[in-house]
Amino acid sequence: xxxxxxxxxxxxxxxxxxxxxxxxxxxxxxxxxxxxxxxxxxxxxxxxxxxxxxxxxxxxxxxxxxxxxxxxxxxxxxxxxxxxxxxxxxxxxxxxxxxxxxxxxxxxxxxxxxxxxxxxxxxxxxxxxxxxxxxxxxxxxxxxxxxxxxxxxxxxxxxxxxxxxxxxxxxxxxxxxxxxxxxxxxxxxxxxxxxxxxxxxxxxxxxxxxxxxxxxxxxxxxxxxxxxxxxxxxxxxxxxxxxxxxxxxxxxxxxxxxxxxxxxxxxxxxxxxxxxxxxxxxxxxxxxxxxxxxxxxxxxxxxxxxxxxxxxxxxxxxxxxxxxxxxxxxxxxxxxxxxxxxxxxxxxxxxxxxxxxxxxxxxxxxxxxxxxxxxxxxxxxxxxxxxxxxxxxxxxxxxxxxxxxxxxxxxxxxxxxxxxxxxxxx
Length: 426
Known about the structure:
Blueprint lengths: L6 H9 L10 E2 L2 E2 L2 E2 L1 E2 L8 E2 L2 H15 L3 H4 L12 H8 L6 E4 L2 H12 L8 E5 L4 H13 L4 H4 E4 L10 H11 L3 E7 L11 H10 L3 E5 L18 E4 L13 E5 L46 H17 L1 H25 L4 E3 L12 E5 L4 H9 L2 E2 L1 E3 L3 E4 L8 H17 L2
Parallel strand pairs: 4-15, 7-8, 7-9, 9-10, 10-11
Antiparallel strand pairs: 1-5, 2-3, 6-12, 11-12, 13-14, 14-17, 16-17
């Protein structure tokens, strides 16, 4: 498609957008009495309007039924989480038995590492990417120390080549092969939070397992954003937060995946709790732990239903739309945003540098751009003029054109505000 940087062209794209109606399903903040252009769905998604009804339902049941809500609510709390299995499995490309919802992201990754990081004297190393999200770095280091190893010896970071912003796929594979029979675990982010680079999950998983290691993925920026086939790609485990692209609310419950080939392996270590115990026998209060055969068998505590309610509202919306339609619009609107950025760069004689890969298969709903020569004052101008975006030092802005609620006219209007902001500082 040959793009044009005009309002009329952007409005025509919106008129042809099959997902345009979902924009009205969300609540937008306002700045100066005007609805914002929201680019931070990679940090916290907007609130779906239907969310309140789901939360109110739980509150009403709690008030009317108290403890009996576990069994006699319209959506009984006892099995509330089971409603996620079918729709969420479609989002991440899994069998329903392979997904569950529980805890928060880093907690779930720790729980997965209890099972899938079992170092030995020979095989003890973990591969991760350089400059992963800090929480992952802290988690991996703490796990390594817990097992008695020195992070300097046990953690292998795949680095970017000098002068490059993204990690080369061949460098990931080569590092896995080089570590070889010392490798215990590959644990990476499916989408790099800073650059928006999407990694080849299928190929990296195969390479890691061919080397004799387990392979897991942090999909904080992947779930609800990229095409995933976790079952077919043979991923051992994964976890993701629900409050970014999946719009479940701040700090909300996490999702987790465990491949079905691990479900019946009772020799795998895990931290046990009663909610992971055989559902039909849970209230017998038996002394011996008998885990559920499925991802639910990794649950520990009873689930926070009030937290799950907003997530269920969003998951059901994803089920209505389907990931193929989301990805189709994602690719188009992200490409249009990149085009607008380049056009504004030319108009202001600027020096923008997009550090997100240009190939659609290597990026998702994110454009990270260095605004060389510009400072924090430009970010402040954008925020004051109704563009909610994310600033990362030294002068990078991350822009996430989420397909469920961002419009093509948003992309055009952002370009005009960006242009005005740069010109006001000259």
